[in-house]
Amino acid sequence: MAGALPARWNRIVKIGLLAGSGRLPIILRERVTFHHCLDLATWPRPLGAVQAICQTMKQAGCEALCLAGAVDRQRFHDLDEGGAWVAQRAGPEAGDGQLLDALIAYFEQQGFKIRGAGDVSPSLRTPAGVLTGALSFDPTSGLVRARTLGQQDVGQAVIHCGETLWLYEDAAGTNTLIKRAGEIPAAVKTLFKAAKPQQDLRVDMPTWGPETVRAAAQAGVRTLIFEAEKTLALDLDEALDQARHQGLTIVGVAP
Amino acid sequence: MAGALPARWNRIVKIGLLAGSGRLPIILRERVTFHHCLDLATWPRPLGAVQAICQTMKQAGCEALCLAGAVDRQRFHDLDEGGAWVAQRAGPEAGDGQLLDALIAYFEQQGFKIRGAGDVSPSLRTPAGVLTGALSFDPTSGLVRARTLGQQDVGQAVIHCGETLWLYEDAAGTNTLIKRAGEIPAAVKTLFKAAKPQQDLRVDMPTWGPETVRAAAQAGVRTLIFEAEKTLALDLDEALDQARHQGLTIVGVAP
């Protein structure tokens, strides 16, 4: 057996999870043993108590934080000292992205490292390549369109219907976009989804999964193009299984 | 809803699994719904009955085959017409790799497409990046050494112990290599594992997983470097969990 190891090799980073709603934090907890988990849905205080959240995670011994899942912005009130810092940094007109950036800045200022869902569970990241089916066109222009939409903080996905029609995602989300596409009689429909170019990829990566594939199949969307590495595939193998059995094509395009 | 779709969009590729032994085919069956599965361990005929295997998969309606898991070469006897074709193509002095290549050629000649485990389940592929811990040196030379070893069809992994000692994997496999490293008192030990440059990556990709991490931790190997995309990580998240809690560093290096 080895002799004494240099201390730096024994360094263990204790990662805590700040879990919002949706499937992502559930999957993460199945896959990753977090040092502590704070479920924001059952956290008894308003989400403006940011300093209290920090203290809880520190008392639990966490050195790094992973933020995952959706958080209802309406619950960001009754600010404590930390919440006030975040609100001031974000500014009065802050969008969701800016508020999140300020929150991250606060956690880092308090000494936490930030780990993305794709860092603690890299197998969640959409891999590059034709994942199933076959691709017969260059997906770049559609992805550029999705990115441009993201830059405007509107949505992260677009659907190409037939030759000339493009549908754009809005605040209602990707599944609503896909349902809208279902009402268009075009024969060839393709979904493109990409990360917002300006977003902090350690938090709030765009996600997709079996539900997306199911909705796409129903709506006649036969090809789904995702930005590889910068999107998260929830239950990738199940999603590909479904796509194979429905004859859909799924492609991850390297950024 | 969409109107009639072009027939090519409704094309479903029916993939069958030829399952050898070990954890890989078990994981694949958990993750992927195969059209048919032929378990080679319980297949009542000798593995030389390659034509019979083909017929079984064709009768089940399979159009593509995924080969996964280890196969005992000693069972390749009592050749039927297909087996004889494979043996002749491989030649009398064939190593494992050449025999496998000939087998693949036979299946393809019979009209099957070949799909790798990393194709039907891309989340099995080791992702690129520092997956946990921190890397303080350039891993290239160790990986080159592992690849050179693979080129000689000896093994696929090497361990660097201290400054000058390198241990090489042989037919006994990676875990035995790691145990040997445990008997060396060097403070810094690093494992490198890469695909053989000449091997068909659709079959027989090198694998690693939680067992590798456990063995490494016990043997004082604190850093594990794998070739990304060209190695398969069985139970990646569990493996990273273990590495985090043991303070090990795991890195996927893009080829």
Structural notes for this entry:
Two copies of one chain form a homodimer. With 255 residues, chain A is of the alpha/beta class. The first copy, chain A, has two domains: 7-119, Rossmann fold (3-Layer(aba) Sandwich); 125-253, 3-Layer(aba) Sandwich (Cytidine Deaminase, domain 2), CATH 3.40.140. Chain A is built from nine helices and twelve strands. The first copy, chain A, has helices at residues 23-31, 50-59, 81-90, 96-109, 117-120, 140-151, 174-182, 210-218, 236-246, and strands at residues 15-19, 36-39, 64-68, 113-114, 129-132, 157-161, 165-168, 189-193, 207-208, 221-227, 232-233, 249-253. In chain A, the strands form three sheets. A six-stranded mixed beta sheet of chain A has the order 5-12-10-8-6-7. Chain A has a four-stranded parallel beta sheet with strand order 2-1-3-4. In chain A, strands 9-11 form a two-stranded parallel ribbon. In chain A, a hairpin with a 3-residue loop joins strand 6 and strand 7 (165-168). Chain A is globular and about 55 Å long. The termini of chain A are far apart. Residues 1-10 of chain A have low confidence and may be disordered. Chains A and B meet through helix 9 of A and helix 9 of B.
